[in-house]
Amino acid sequence: MRYKVLVDVYEALDATTKRLEKTDILADFFSRVETGLLPVVTIMALGKVFPVWSEKELGIGSKLLMKAIALAVGVTTLEVEDQIRDQGDIGSATEILYKKRSQTTFFSKPLTIEMVYTNLRKLANISGNKAQSRKIDIILELLSLASPQEAKYITRTVLEELRVGVGEGTIRDSISQAFGVDKKLLERAHMLTNDLGMVAKVAHAEGEKGLQSLSLKPGKPVKPMLAQLADGIKETVLEMGRIYCETKYDGIRVQIHRKDSQIMIFTRRLENISNALPDVIQYIEKALPPQDFIVEGEIIVTKQGKPISFQYILQRVRRKYDIEKVMESVPLTLYLFDVLYYQEPLIDAPLEIRRETLEKIAKTMDNQVELSKQVKVSGDNIEDAENLFKESIELGHEGIMLKDPQAPYIPGIRGKKMLKYKAEPESLDLVVVGGTYGKGKRAHGIGSYLLALNDDDGELKTIAHVATGLDENTLLELSNRMEELAIERRGRQIKVKPHIILEISYSEIVKSPEYESGYSLRFPVVKRIRDDLSIEDIDTVARVNSMFKRP
Ligand code: ATP
Questions:
Q1: How far apart are CA 367 and CA 256, in angstroms?
Q2: Global model pTM greater than 0.95
Q3: Does the CB atom of residue 454 touch ligand 1 within 6 A?
Q4: Which is the catalytic residue, given 22, 67, 152, 248?
Q5: I need a surface site. Which of 119, 535, 546, 551 has the fewest CB within 10 A?
Q6: Ligand 1 pocket, mutate which of 401, 410, 413 (most atoms under 8 A from CB)
Q7: Which atom belonging to ligand 1 lies closest to the Cα atom of 250?
Q8: From the CA of 266, how far away is ligand 1's center (Å)?
């Protein structure tokens, strides 16, 4: 099919901002395309030649493209740059340069959609010796056959900036309209396969029946199931009845596929990052059976047992060179938490079955592959969930996930079947004004610390008791310091001079008549002792007030 036909469609799409009109234009076009070409035109309608999950990318920078344009129209790259500055976009600039050029061109053969598609895909395979000039040659081959309008869209496609205002939703609606298939069915098929081209082809050739038979397959990532914020642990248990509580690790979410003997790793945006993680691929080869599967998990980096910043992991994943070097200095741990495919698709199975399967098939490997820590909670052991939350925060993780064990895996949806309960990102610096001696084995030391903040008049107002977050040695040291600061003792209670400042994480600020500030903290955990701060630096009732009021 002539590329000109697709270019006319692009122009028509560009001429309207109305989604319904765009849908009509595309539906009319799709119904005129033969089945075999449908996958190509659907992806090109999005301005791409590779799906997002492909390991391949065009990888052509605007500098290289400008060189090719300059050669094609016989001007300098500076002139191309000037034109782009005037027009604001490389495609329109190219079209104008084409129209201006003095030499007449003889189109030796008309450009076809297949040629443009194939040539552009070739670009991704070029590396090594003279890669740049070979890439320019391929682009030039297309540009030399192109009309001004065609050149406009070829250049835009090379940079993956088509600018005709079409997204996946519009494409789906157009396929539905063109082939008379149900929108919901299309959406489901797309969600499971993430291959609009294939979905279009099946819709055309096999109709709704064909779409129904599509399911997820190792090798093609699925959009991940997402979580809503939980109102609270108790509230969630009441609503779900039974929950699976898991540590919420703060790293990057990965979907790992094994197809035949190839292992692929995708991000939550479905990008293929397998090349950046050879170590994780090695772990997976050892930890999981040599069969096709899809599992999900979170990759984190720990330093001396504590998870370190999320940004650090991103850097590690984005890194394309010297991967071996970073591999040694930044060891990764993969926490697996779900399985979507093993011998067959499992997304319709309830979480409890999926977790059981995961536990059966995954071998854990110390600090390399672990299963997410999990406790099963119902009405009578809510404190297990609360303890897991505290433990997670103490260890430096983000909080916990609260999952409905009966729920299927629902791709791409932020639903109510999986919730997250996190510590507030902003911790508070509070001063210790008292404490309570422990009981039994801990009777000699102070087990719980009364914390206060400053009010407007510079007076201290209590806000919470904290009892978790410190190791035994630090607890002992703090107890000793408290003894020296003691100003009053009554029973197991001790009052101290306000001197020790602690940084406190918590899940929520709540109103409470129990403390002088009128507020209290849910699940407070000591992050660290702040000997670098003085009493003037601690947080204030006013700040807590404004944090509480924030939506
Ligand atoms: P956030 O910034 O809170 O991670 P998000 O939009 O990236 O939000 P959500 O779906 O809202 O993602 O929250 C769940 C995220 O928590 C998952 O995407 C995953 O990356 C991460 N996670 C960490 N541990 C787990 C676990 N045990 N089970 C499920 N998800 C987990």
A1: 18
A2: no
A3: no
A4: 248
A5: 551
A6: 401
A7: 23
A8: 15
Report how far residue 508's alpha carbon sits from residue 547's, in angstroms, rounded to the nearest whole number.
Answer: 10
Q: Per-residue pLDDT tens, the chain, 551 aa: give them.
A: 999 999 999 999 999 999 999 999 999 999 999 999 999 999 999 999 998 888 888 888 889 999 999 999 999 999 999 999 998 889 999 999 998 875 555 556 899 999 999 999 999 988 888 899 999 999 999 999 999 999 999 999 999 889 898 999 999 999 999 999 999 999 999 999 999 999 999 999 999 999 999 999 999 999 899 999 898 899 999 999 999 999 999 888 999 999 999 999 998 888 888 988 889 999 999 999 999 999 999 999 877 767 876 667 767 776 666 666 666 667 889 999 999 999 999 999 999 999 999 999 999 998 899 999 999 999 899 999 999 999 998 888 989 999 999 999 999 888 999 999 998 878 999 999 999 988 776 667 888 999 999 998 879 999 999 987 777 788 888 888 888 898 888 888 999 999 999 999 998 899 999 999 999 999 999 888 888 888 888 999 999 998 888 76
In short, whether 296's Cβ falls inside 6 Å of ligand 1 is no
Which residues lie closer than 8 Å to 292 by C-beta, 6 or more apart?
218, 258, 259, 260, 341, 342, 343
The encoded tokens of residue 259 equal 């197809």
CA dihedral sign, ordered 145, 146, 151, 155: negative
Per the structure block, which two tokens stand in for 350? 């309830």
Residue whose CA lies nearest to ligand 1 atom number 20: 253
Ligand 1 binding pocket mutation candidate from 222, 228, 247, 249 (most atoms within 8 A of CB): 249
Q: Which domains does the chain have, with CATH numbers?
A: 3-158 (1.10.3260.10), 226-422 (3.30.470.30), 428-549 (2.40.50.140)
Helix (H) or strand (E) holding 489: strand 486-490
